[in-house]
Amino acid sequence: MRIGLIGTGTIGGGVVEILETKAAQYREKLGINLELACICAKSDEEVAPYKAKGYKTTTDAMTMIADPTIDVVVELAGGYEMPRKWITTALENKKHIVTANKAMLAKYGHEVFPLAEKNNCHVLFEAAVGGGIPIIRSMQEGFVGSEVEQLSCIINGTCNYILSRMGESGMSFEDALKEAQLNGFAERNPTFDIEGVDSAHKTAILSSLCSGKYVDFEKIHVTGVAKITAEDISNAKELGYKIKLLGIYRRGEDGAVDARVHPCLVPNDHLLASVDGVINAVYLHCDNLGQTLQTGAGAGRLPTASAVVADLVSLARSTDTGSRKPLPMGWFNKENAAKLVPISETSSRYYLRFTTKDSFGVLASITGIFSQNEISIESIIQKDVKDPGKVSIVVISECTKESKMLTALEAIDSLSSVSEKSQMIRFLK
After folding, report:
1. Digit-coded pLDDT (tens) for 240-297
2. How far apart are the C-alpha atoms of 207 and 112, rounded to whole Å?
3. Which residues hold NADPH (predicted)?
4. 8 is in an annotated binding site
5. 354: β partners
6. Torsions phi, psi for 183 (to 5 deg)
7. Is 6 within any annotated ligand binding site?
8. To 10 degrees, what angle do helices 102-118 and 197-211 make?
9. Which of 18, 103, 245, 259 could form a disulfide with 207 if both were Cys (CB 3.0 to 4.6 A apart)?
């Protein structure tokens, strides 16, 4: 199987390294021959080291894709528009695709997958979600005897590292982010990670696989972690919880899909609570299988490259025998779009933190607004803060519809005695 590789960055370089060390083993033990026929990058400087080693190289991806001897295009460049063009052109030329590009699949998968099905081509994307965790193959093949009822995932290593370090050391969000950047766990511009966009791409893909419907990542609720404070982390610890950024899928009524990304308070005895640092995890509850947890490196050069190579091996075995048809993904299209449950229609217990003036009647005003909105309170804790004349009030609500909670918080935030915008974090159900 002749491979055309686009992208020589962290993951692309890892793929070349693995193929160099294991290609002979694949020939001997699996009877397949993976030949890296051409390597493409955007500049001569980037391909120069590979050209020096004897590989055929190019800076023109479209020319490589047009080569009739190329069987599969591996897209590892990232981004939206150019990968979309490369992949659709390759599929029109009846070439198979392996990609790690979750952003492009989340945005344009509704074009890519039907086109692949039309041309009887494989599109494999294990490395797009969870790095080295084989969650895509598990959901497409391993869990077919069950239906996923719930999914909760820690799917961004940057955010998990930041929140873990805040919990371990008591440091601020800003300091934990700087540490993550110094250690190479966060980008120089971390916006996609800390604002939850990366998690939304992956959650949308997983929710689509769970539901058999096209889940549009641009329509799901997303809240990142930038507003989580050391105080919130400390309060959660006292309550017996950890704060994690979760991607969530729930099977709703009448085929509706509840898909969202936001911080959650996870109880210490939950399987996800022990997943710290840059490790990713996907927790599922299935009707026949019950509970299962898959964990592993969610990013990194070799873990992600390993997932790419695993897809190449699977593809080579399929195309060599000719007996394995591409997995059907044509249902991933706009005509089969999921009906999404609005976040306002969901229900949860809530952690709420208010910073108020230390004056008579403040607590009564807050509890009165909750009462007016038919919100029951489980507990209230009042704490001192560094600023003189102010207090921090932590409220834990009983299970409440989100629309009621948002109405109450809007009224509370408008009180003259409330100094800062309220903090709201949902509990994991």
Report:
1. 999 999 999 999 888 899 999 999 999 999 999 999 999 999 999 999 989 999 999 8
2. 17
3. 102
4. yes
5. 393
6. -90, 0
7. yes
8. 30
9. 259
Q: How many Å separate Cα 380 from the centre of its chain?
A: 34
Structure tokens at 284: 């599922």
Question: pLDDT, tens digit, for every residue of 264-280?
Answer: 999 999 999 999 999 99
Any idea what the Cα angle at residue 86 is, between residues 122 and 309, rounded to 5°?
A: 45
**What is the rounded distance in angstroms from the CA atom of residue 74 to the CA atom of residue 55?**
16
> Percent of the chain having pLDDT more than 90?
89
Six-digit token pair at 17?
């390294």
Contacts of 125 (CB under 8 A, 6+ apart): 98, 99, 100, 101, 102, 105, 136, 205, 311
Task: State yes or no: 187 annotated in a binding site.
Answer: yes
Q: Is 389 annotated as a binding residue?
A: no
Amino acid at 8: T
User: Which CATH entry fits the domain spanning 136-297: 3.30.360.10, 3.40.50.970, 2.60.120.580, 2.40.50.100?
Assistant: 3.30.360.10
- The reply to whether 10 sits in an annotated binding site is yes
Please give the helix or strand (H or E) that residue 20 lies within, else none: helix 10-30
What type of residue sits at position 242?
Answer: K
3-state secondary structure of 94: coil
Closest CA relative to residue 99, chosen from 61, 69, 63, 151: 61
What's the rounded Cα separation, in Å, for the pair 194 and 186? Answer: 9
Residues that are catalytic: 202
Say which CATH superfamily domain 343-427 falls into. ACT domain (3.30.70.260)
Q: E strands within 89-219?
A: 96-99, 123-124, 148-154
Question: Distance between CA atoms of 161 and 299, rounded to whole angstroms?
Answer: 12
